Amino acid sequence: SQQGEEDPQALSIQEGENATMNCSYKTSINNLQWYRQNSGRGLVHLILIRSNEREKHSGRLRVTLDTSKKSSSLLITASRAADTASYFCATAPATYGNNRLAFGKGNQVVVIP
Amino acid sequence: DGGITQSPKYLFRKEGQNVTLSCEQNLNHDAMYWYRQDPGQGLRLIYYSQIVNDFQKGDIAEGYSVSREKKESFPLTVTSAQKNPTAFYLCASRTGEKLFFGSGTQLSVL
Fold first, then answer.
1. How far is CA B79 from CA A49, A63, B38, B84, B107, in A?
2. Could you give the CA distance from residue A56 to residue A69 in angstroms, rounded to a whole number?
3. Rounded to an integer, what distance in angstroms lies between the CA atom of residue A108 and that of residue A84?
């Protein structure tokens, strides 16, 4: 079952700007993860935030999690052309744990040099 | 060079034909997964295996079959019962909470 649901937006920004995308989910989770996919390639894990965490940073990435609203956001600061990709959130439902991550539909980001 | 290898990169299926997608990993991970990705949609889980000789159906298992005879290998067969097989297929393995993905196989129908 699909749980993670990103705002279905295609984002086009200039290099150096920040990119923000959101994800909502429906049931209780153990953690929420963000992955990046370059065109025609596999997904690459970016960052994980657990249900008892509110914010997490990794390099130019900042993830927030609001369990009361069942939503998360991913912020990429000072974007680069190499950040052009699709970004997916994935939730680990409390029922299944990490065995059945549920992926959203993805958010396409284009960074213009 | 550790990772997950999927082959072939492109595959064409004739009507009524079964085809098998290969997935091999040398990461020593116990759990492996198959996802299907359609344009504009997220990943949907087909099958997963937590250990050798064991596997479970995902959300869209109909028309697919798998085997897990070795830890390193988790092949996916798309049977003739799958009427709409055209999609991008992704194999993944898991350690802890994170998934590691192969580069995918694009399956098309002739």
1. 38, 40, 18, 11, 12
2. 17
3. 8
CB-CB contact of B59 with B101 (8 Å): no
Tell me if chain A has a CB within 8 Å of the CB of B44: yes
CA gap B56, A100 in Å, rounded: 10
pLDDT tens digits, B54-89: 999 999 999 999 999 999 999 999 999 998 999 999
Q: Which residues of A touch B50 (CB under 8 A)?
A: 99
- The answer to whether the beta carbons of residues A18 and A74 sit under 8 Å apart is no
User: Phi and psi for A46 in degrees, rounded to 5?
Assistant: -105, -55
Percent of chain B with pLDDT over 90: 89
**Three-state DSSP class for A2?**
coil
CA gap B59, B36 in Å, rounded: 10
Kindly report, residue by residue over A24-80, the tens digit of the pLDDT.
Answer: 999 999 999 999 999 999 999 999 999 999 999 999 999 999 999 999 999 999 999
pLDDT of residue A94: 86
Q: Do A43 and B90 touch (CB under 8 A)?
A: yes
**Nearest-Cα residue of chain A relative to residue B42:** A105
Residue A52: name the closest of A30, A35, A33, A70 by CA.
A30
Ordered DSSP codes for B95-108: ETTEEEE---EEEE
